[in-house]
Amino acid sequence: DAQDLNKIKNYLKDNQALQNAAYFGKEKGKNVIMFHLESFQQFLIDYKVDGVEVTPNLNKFYHDQNTLSFDNFYNQVGQGKTADAEMMLETGLFGTASGSAMVNYGTSNTYQAVPAILDQQGYTTAALHGDVASFWNRDNTYKSWGYDYFFSKPYFKNADNANYNIGYGMKDKIFLKDSAKYLEQLPQPFYSKIITVTNHYPYDLDKQNISIAKTKTSDKTVDGYVQTARYLDQSFAEFLNWMKKSGLYDNSVIALYGDHYGISENHKAAIAKLTGKKSTTNFDLANWQKVPFMVHAPGLKGGVNHTYGGEIDVMPTILHLLGKSTQDNIQFGQDLLSPNRRQIVPFRNGDWVSAEYMKYGGDYYVTTTGTKIKPKEDPRAKEIIDQTQSYVDKMLTYSDDVQTGDLLRFYKPKDFKKVNIKDYSYQRAKG
Ligand code: GP9
Ligand code: MN
């Protein structure tokens, strides 16, 4: 109830990170493209198979002088996978300990999400994805989040053409080409999220789209991963070319994020082969959870940023770049550019990574060296580890309280108007 919310609000206030004056508001009024790299992991950046770059275009974007690239950024999803990533990025709330928060709470809960916040700052907001609108309960949840438009399968004429489909939906190159037509008609400034899907388990790809050899781990659901990742890379490159030709590249923030791991921890032997190691420890598996997060804008002071963070931190990072403070929002992230952020990354199962130590799969390590430690034998480390664990447990519990108790219905950020889901319809107009 409202008392619970007050306790949470005060805790978050006491743990708030400062804005970064050098970046705050630098991209105010710019369009935003959130580009969802399905199942794309950080290890693919600058990765080569037999000397061939898997993702040359993403690598170039990652190293661009106007791209902020985070190389200690982790996925924090639970069973909700893509849906948990979307929940964290749009609301600053974690997914739930089990199930998908979008499915279980997306329709009925009150949210104060990025699309609604930016809508109220004069933005038009749109989500684009080639799957059916009801997958992960997106159609209902997006209304709670305040998306003006949701271009889903019925909006894509090629959606049912077998030649253009593979795995979970339309091939990304086709989807992105058709998506461009919707983006160029959006009133500006717009906030858009584009969700790709071809790079998805089990990573099948038709022959004419294959442009790199499979890896040779002999794990058949792993060895195609580099092929669909390279296809995604080419799809992104084609989209970027269109952005440049249409002029949108010069007045837009383009943020890329991997939503979660592609190769799960059950493939330890294959992971060892892909990373050139004899075996895979829990230290390796923690780092295996890294996904890319990159933000590009013309003139943005770029570079590789080593801060330890994750998907929960994207909302304050993006909104602060757009000059929108989040100090009045109930959200669990800390701006990745903040000078005093805690650098603690909670995973959904209560494990965590921090700048000093990490806890993963029941083991503890020094983060920068991989040295395994036993907290019982190291009192100083134990003190820090215990404090970190209680912070992680509190953040996850409080976020679950907000979700399961729908606590945001008791709250309204200053200068925010409550979202009325009846104001939204995503049905494709006939004709
Ligand atoms: C489904 C697509 C894949 O529409 O987003 O979702 P995932 O299986 O990654 O959660
Ligand atoms: Mn996904």
UniProtKB/TrEMBL annotation:
The keyword Cell membrane applies. It comes from Weissella sagaensis. The chain holds residues 227 to 657 of 731 of the full protein. Residues 30-323 form the Sulfatase N-terminal domain. This is LTA synthase family protein. Its main location: membrane. Its EC number is 2.7.8.-. One of its GO terms (molecular function) is transferase activity. Pathway: Cell wall biogenesis; lipoteichoic acid biosynthesis. It is found in: Cell membrane. It is a multi-pass membrane protein. Belongs to the LTA synthase family. Signal peptide: none annotated. Keywords: Cell membrane, Membrane, Transferase, Transmembrane, Transmembrane helix.
